[in-house]
Amino acid sequence: MFISSTEEFKIPPNWVYRGEGNCNVVLSLPNERKILRIRKTKRTTSLLSWLLNWITDILYWYCGNALNEELRDLTFYKKIIRPLIGINFVCDAEQVFLSRKQIKVLEDELAHQRPGYRKNKSLQYGRAALFDDYALLPDEFYPFPLSNNTYAIEIKPKQGWIPFSEKHLPKCTFCLNQYVKKENGQINSISSYCPVDLFSGEPSRMVSALKALIDSPQNNFKVFKNGELYYGENCEIELFKNFIAEFFRTERETYETLVREFCVLVKQCLLTNFATIEKTNNCNMKLFCEWNKIIQENSFQTKLPKGCVLERILSVQMLDVEGNQYYYKLLAKKKLGEYDYVKELVKEVSRRPGTCLKCIVMMLGNIDEKIMRENHLVLVPYLISAIAKDCSLMLTFKKVMEVNSDNYGMKNVISTKFGDYVVNVGVFDLYPKPVSTILKHRKKMKKILETWAKNEA
User: Fold this and answer.
1) Cβ neighbourhood burial of 154 (10 Å; 0-12, 13-18, 19+)
2) Residue 373 has pLDDT above 60, yes or no
3) What is the mean pLDDT of the chain?
4) Which residue, among 450, 337, 350, 426, has the nearest Cα to 383 in the 3D structure?
5) Fewer CB near the terminus (10 Å): N or C of the chain?
6) Torsion 81-85-86-88 (CA) sign
7) Which domain holds residue 373?
8) Total structural domains in the chain?
9) Is the pLDDT of residue 389 over 60?
């Protein structure tokens, strides 16, 4: 497909740097209530490599590859990941074009805002998309007055599901990886947060997990006020104390009481099914549905209510039944493009109307051994599960200023002893993972086990 012209997206002048991960830089567009997500690419280190990269970049763009790859990823996001997690929790997205000049200006303006360890990558020309900004409440009418300030809690819950082949490990992957991060100097102390506790659905374990995130946020817990970062990694706990007194609008209670009530509020949001319309499962295959039932009854006990955000995320993580070693062995016999599976999976889904996505993914992971050697779609369960293991969720709050018994009938109003709150829940960071993710995880697990053994010796 050849793309000869595109319309440049006009970036509003009041954009705000929201943050970045390994693959993307995120800018907030406050007036539009949108997030502009820009892909990153490896930074060149020499004049020759810069020149080669520049020439390749020109050809790459001229042939339309950048736009087509972004379109490929957005199609995957809309047709696969969004339905899997749930359209109540995952917003729509729109592809946009940023010119080379815009990218250069952004690079210069972001230079003093980006953390040093992220500057090994630069912004990628030609790949950007717009999403709803979950740090702000949707612009809807509410039949009662709300506070002026909007507060948002971002959580990166990580891996709550442990595949059968990894159940012998002494701790979950996140907890074991803490020792690697400490050895590498990425953190000063080991966090007591455990994803398995958060995904357990047990109130006391969930509250303990949330308290651990507050005490040691690392990159897994952030607080925003009106779309701007208020508390997170490398922040003093005093900031969170200020936030929580402001959030509940009280200075009479102790910090411990406020933290407890805050964790209970967040826990309730994570356990509530906010769907306004319940979708009936009329799947004509039942493979995943029956498999999921067996897993729940015999191997993995969770008390998460059906349809809550954590249950939706966990159900996608659970597509990886076998664990990394199994998929690593399969991949070792293949030579595959990083994203070859993406288009093929979208085609496979379109060929099977009436079949739920989880059933299709599980079927692909259980195809005949002879076909398996030829078909790279057998890796799909692991790669989709990896997306859910690395996603983020956002809880957004506004306080209801007038107590009214009618509020309690609304699904998106949560009550606390300090008042009622309108809440919205969103899930993001859901783009496809490259096939090399399997190799990356293999190396990471090897390092994790070596470091753990060293610390336990």
Assistant:
1) buried
2) no
3) 85
4) 337
5) C
6) negative
7) 134-457
8) 2
9) yes
